[in-house]
């Protein structure tokens, strides 16, 4: 069969054959559910009834007219702040562990290990860390003489709970970002650093003038992951606080899941999911605009 075909035809058939199954899987498990989600957002479906009453834009009007729904985005802000701190720390460790340092591979593995741990297991572990009476954090603060902080309810205080939860994410994902930054640093030609050293550039000048500008695409990628991760947080508050105290740690995704599975309002939950998608895209476009404008100056 292939013997009578030209090389270009054989090449085309092989490429199409290899792409068919991945594209089919992508369509079945990504695009088809997305289309159904958009359809459900215009209905008043309860999740199990065969009838799906069409309500038009009523679900979207409900989302935008209910201030309690958008108010939970304030709780996601803590995850964004800790995500930025996480990237700064990751760059710091990446720069240090890219130099000639004895045992650097051991420290790389040590910092990366939290990322491979199960998210639910991490959440339960930090539940013991943040425990008010017997938690290791309060015990450490008490031994350090900080008795005023040793009885703090880290997961029960409205102003602290989101930052406490977000710090768990910082501990878990910092090593992952560090590995990405190390790979970016290793891609920068060594000749540039040697030339800067010959010209008398100091460590900070090298960092600001050479290292960070060459890492800009990777920094943008990690900021993209930080923003999307901050807006889509679910597992940590769900496991540790169930959205408490009094809804102070409930995230937008938690509200979506609650709307769908607790109140059986899949139509409204679908509309909330679509709005989250557009909100993520909007925030990322603003981020790219700001970063690109800053880089063109």
TrEMBL record:
Domain ABC transmembrane type-1: 76-287
Protein localization: Cell membrane
Domain of life: Bacteria
Transmembrane segments: 12-32, 77-97, 109-130, 266-291
Gene3D superfamilies: MetI-like
Keyword field: Cell membrane, Membrane, Transmembrane, Transmembrane helix, Transport
GO cellular component terms listed in the entry, alphabetical order: plasma membrane
InterPro entries the record matches: ABC_transporter_permease, MetI-like, MetI-like_sf
SUPFAM superfamilies, alphabetized: MetI-like
Membrane topology listed for this record: Multi-pass membrane protein
PROSITE patterns, A to Z: ABC_TM1
Any one of the GO BP annotations: transmembrane transport
Family of the protein in this entry: Belongs to the binding-protein-dependent transport system permease family.
Protein name: Sugar ABC transporter permease
């Amino acid at each position: 069969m292939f013997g009578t075909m030209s090389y270009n035809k054989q090449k085309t058939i092989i490429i199409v054959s290899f792409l068919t199954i991945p594209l089919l899987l992508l369509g079945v498990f990504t695009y088809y559910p997305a289309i159904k989600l958009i359809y459900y957002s215009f209905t008043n479906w309860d999740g199990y009834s065969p009838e799906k009453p069409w309500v038009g834009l009523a679900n979207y009007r409900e989302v935008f007219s209910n201030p309690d729904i958008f108010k939970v985005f304030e709780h996601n802000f803590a995850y964004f702040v800790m995500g930025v701190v996480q990237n700064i720390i990751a760059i710091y460790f990446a720069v240090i562990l890219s130099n000639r340092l004895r045992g650097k591979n051991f420290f790389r593995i040590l910092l990366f290990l939290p990322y491979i741990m199960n998210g639910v297991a991490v959440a339960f572990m930090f539940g013991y860390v943040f425990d008010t009476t017997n938690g290791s954090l309060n015990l450490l603060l008490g031994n350090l003489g900080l008795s005023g902080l040793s009885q703090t309810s880290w997961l029960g205080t409205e102003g602290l709970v989101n930052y406490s939860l977000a710090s768990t994410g910082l501990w878990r994902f910092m090593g992952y970002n560090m590995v990405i930054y190390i790979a970016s640093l290793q891609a920068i030609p060594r000749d540039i650093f040697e030339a800067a050293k010959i010209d008398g550039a100091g460590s900070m000048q090298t960092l600001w003038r050479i290292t960070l500008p060459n890492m800009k695409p990777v920094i943008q990628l990690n900021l993209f992951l930080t923003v999307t991760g901050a807006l889509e947080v679910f597992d940590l508050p769900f496991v540790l606080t169930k959205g408490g105290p009094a809804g102070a740690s409930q995230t937008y995704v938690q509200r979506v899941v609650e709307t769908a599975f607790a109140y059986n309002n899949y139509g409204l939950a679908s509309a909330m999911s679509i709005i989250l998608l557009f909100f993520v895209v909007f925030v990322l476009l603003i981020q790219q605009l700001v970063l690109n404008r800053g880089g063109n100056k």
